Amino acid sequence: MYEHIGETRLWDTVLGFTCIVVLLLLRKVKDIKVSSGSASGEEVSGARAALAQALWFLSTTRNILVVLVCAALAYYFDTRKQTPFVLTGEVKPGLPSIGPPPFSATVGNHTYNFMEMASTLGSAIFVVPLLSILENIALAKVFCEYYFLYDINF
After folding, report:
1. Please, are residues 15 and 70 in contact by the beta-carbon 8 Å criterion?
2. DSSP characters for the chain?
């Protein structure tokens, strides 16, 4: 990271930090307590329950909301032929063919075998799958808590 700090682009950094702040704020939205209000009746409690459920949904879907907003922002700038952010570029349509993963790769004039690729990845070869599993467990806990909180039966 320190070697390439000079290559940091301002708007990519601003977008990244803005996304982090928005994600952290949206994470706390589910903790907002909906007040009882002055009116009484069943419609008020129904409205409170709907608001509480909407806040929970907003907090739970925060990741996809940030991705969609950033994608819309990138599309907006792309249609205006402006490039404040570095974009991935064209993505081939369709699914990749089914087969074993590549055990060698050619980059430039050098062909890397599996051991060279694994050593280049370093600890990420274990960390990325572990983080994926932890993310799935965290999502399962969130949805499980929601179903127990609202006593939903299947």
Report:
1. yes
2. --TTGGG--HHHHHHHHHHHHHHHHHHHGGGPPPP--S--SHHHHHHHHHHHHHHHHHHHTHHHHHHHHHHHHHHHHHHTT--SS--------SPPPPSPPPSEEEETTEEEEHHHHHHHHTTHHHHHHHHHHHHHHHHHHHHHHHHHHTT---
CA contacts within 13 A on the Cβ side of 95: 3
Q: Delimit the domains of the chain by residue range.
A: 1-91, 96-154
Average pLDDT of 54-77?
A: 90
Two structure tokens written together for 131:
């983080």
Confidence grade of residue 67 (pLDDT, cut at 50, 70, 90): very high
pLDDT confidence bin for 4, thresholds 50/70/90: confident
